[in-house]
Design a protein that fits this description.
The structure holds 2 protein chains of 2 kinds. Chain A is an alpha/beta fold. Chain A is built from 7 helices and 9 strands; from the N terminus they run βββαββαβαααβαβαβ. At the A-B interface, β1 and α2 of A face α8, α10 and α11 of B.
């Protein structure tokens, strides 16, 4: 399978200047690879840095060392050194991310928020909205809520809006941070189906999944972040 | 497409001194068409000084501001003639002030406020000017029947939207904004943010927005510049600067946000 993302010798530490400039080393020597059709579960106990690593893959967090190369538009680009313009382009067309938090402008209707990534890619607004409707329907968000801002929704509904937004564009690489965390069985099944569809179209996926059943159902492999914690191999 | 990647604005080593006191020092950056740059920092950090020096309102002590003009290619803004610079400022550039009273003429109607910028660039057909003004009122969500009313009869949020309409009617490519949501209550602020983001996207505007509100900066800007004591201490992708700040002052700024 063709390689889509490759992290080499990646290290991360945080320096907390407001707390006596203490430096907290987190990772060192990470080697990680994703290929088309993969769904790799990032594993490790709570607090081990799974989300931190995922944020590094999205260039939301900087790396202290190493490179994270992403296959974007036929070229390999290192997101640890790429310009903000390039990173925004990579996120727009190549790298999707479903976070645990919904961050949107108040007042914007749910339908528009879900359709936005496709509109940004140049898809006609009507077609993008049509796809947004399909996804919201599949994820059981009642139609009467579509014209409201999701900021008024329950946690589980917001999570599903986030998933709809994350899956509306066919990103070649997808990062999923606990996509099934606050969902009931039916909606979890829908998310698993969405992940399967993404895999079969050739997406390379890395995910954090809180339960074994989800992991066993969709993942093709796993990656234990704890083995790259600073001091893990001492 | 090459033009998309060429900078619209280039600022090189800009320094503004007030006697011995530093307004802003050695600021350099580039801005591309359609790109939104946020400038954050506490009061007195030099944000507004920098904005005034870039936007040709106050000649800097040192440094260069270059702009990709529509007709003459790249020009040094402070080497242009006064007339050329004024034309640039009222056509291809726009400036949205924190207080709409600084950007509007309060003693003429809403329609005249919008029409004035069109007349300044040579539009003389009254009917066209009026219909253009009316369509812009619609874009900023002000009812047509308010076209002939004075801005002083408008609420603060409406005045701010009118100021935006007045500024955008000439189809500028670069907009400077100084705390545009500053004096507004939160519900009005949300509406304005939504409106601004839509306009920026639809019109492919390049924007430099000064704000002390990190939430506003996060929602609107692609890149963020953090200023302290006149200097840029951190500059990068907005979410990276806010979520993984490297400089002590940025860390302090981010950790001081109230959670709700």
């Amino acid at each position: 399978m063709s390689e889509m993302l490759h992290a080499q010798n990646v290290a991360k530490s945080f320096t907390l200047h407001t707390q006596g400039s203490v430096t907290i080393p987190v990772f060192e020597g990470i080697e990680f690879m994703l290929s088309a059709g993969d769904c790799i579960a990032l594993t490790g106990e709570s607090g081990s840095g799974k989300s931190t690593f995922m944020r590094m893959l999205y260039a939301n967090y900087t790396c202290s060392q190493g490179s994270i190369k992403v296959f974007h538009d036929g070229d390999w680009l290192d997101i640890t050194t790429a310009s903000p313009h390039s990173i925004l382009e990579i996120r727009k067309r190549t790298l999707g991310y479903v976070s645990q938090f919904l961050r949107v402008i108040p007042r914007v209707p749910t339908l528009d928020i879900v359709a936005e990534p496709l509109v940004a890619l140049g898809t006609d607004r009507t077609a993008a909205t049509e796809k947004a409707r399909d996804l919201l329907t599949r994820l059981r968000i009642p139609e009467r809520l579509w014209q409201l801002s999701p900021l008024t929704f329950s946690g589980g509904e917001q999570q599903r809006v986030n998933i709809a937004r994350g899956f509306i564009a066919d990103y070649p690489i997808m990062l999923l941070d606990e996509p099934t965390a606050s969902l009931d069985a039916q909606n979890r099944a829908t998310v698993l189906a969405l992940i399967e569809e993404a895999k079969s179209r050739g997406a390379a996926i890395a995910g954090i999944f809180h339960d074994h059943e989800t992991r066993d159902a969709v993942c093709t492999g796993s990656f234990d972040v704890t083995s790259f914690k600073v001091g893990a191999n001492d | 497409m090459t033009q998309m990647n060429e900078p619209l604005l280039r600022v090189d080593n800009l320094t503004m001194m007030y006697g011995d006191r530093v307004g802003c020092k050695d600021v350099s950056f580039e801005l591309r068409p359609g790109e939104v740059l946020g400038i954050v920092g506490e009061s007195g950090s030099g944000k507004s000084t920098l904005l005034r020096s870039i936007s040709a309102q106050q000649e800097p002590t040192k440094g260069v501001v270059e702009y990709q003009t529509r007709i003459d290619g790249v020009r040094d803004v402070y080497q242009m003639s006064e007339a050329q610079r004024r034309l640039l400022m009222r056509t291809d550039w726009a400036f949205v002030h924190q207080n709409p009273r600084d950007g509007l003429r309060m003693n003429v109607s809403a329609g005249a406020n919008i029409g004035e910028r069109l007349m300044a660039i040579g539009d003389r057909h009254y009917g066209n000017i009026r219909s253009n003004a009316d369509s812009w009122l619609g874009k900023v969500e002000i009812a047509s029947e308010r076209l002939d009313d004075l801005p002083s009869t408008f609420s603060g949020g409406m005045q701010q939207r009118l100021q935006i309409a007045r500024n955008l009617v000439t189809s500028p490519r670069l907009v400077f904004m100084d705390e545009p949501t500053g004096g507004l209550d939160v519900s009005v602020q949300a509406r304005l943010l939504d409106l601004l983001r839509g306009l920026v996207h639809d019109l492919n505007l390049a924007v430099i927005i000064v704000t002390h509100d990190l939430a506003v900066a996060r929602l609107l800007s692609h890149r963020l510049m953090v200023m302290q004591q006149g200097k840029v201490i951190e500059h990068g992708l907005t979410d990276q600067v806010l979520d993984d700040p490297q400089h002590p002052y940025t860390q302090l700024l981010v950790s001081s946000i109230l959670q709700n």
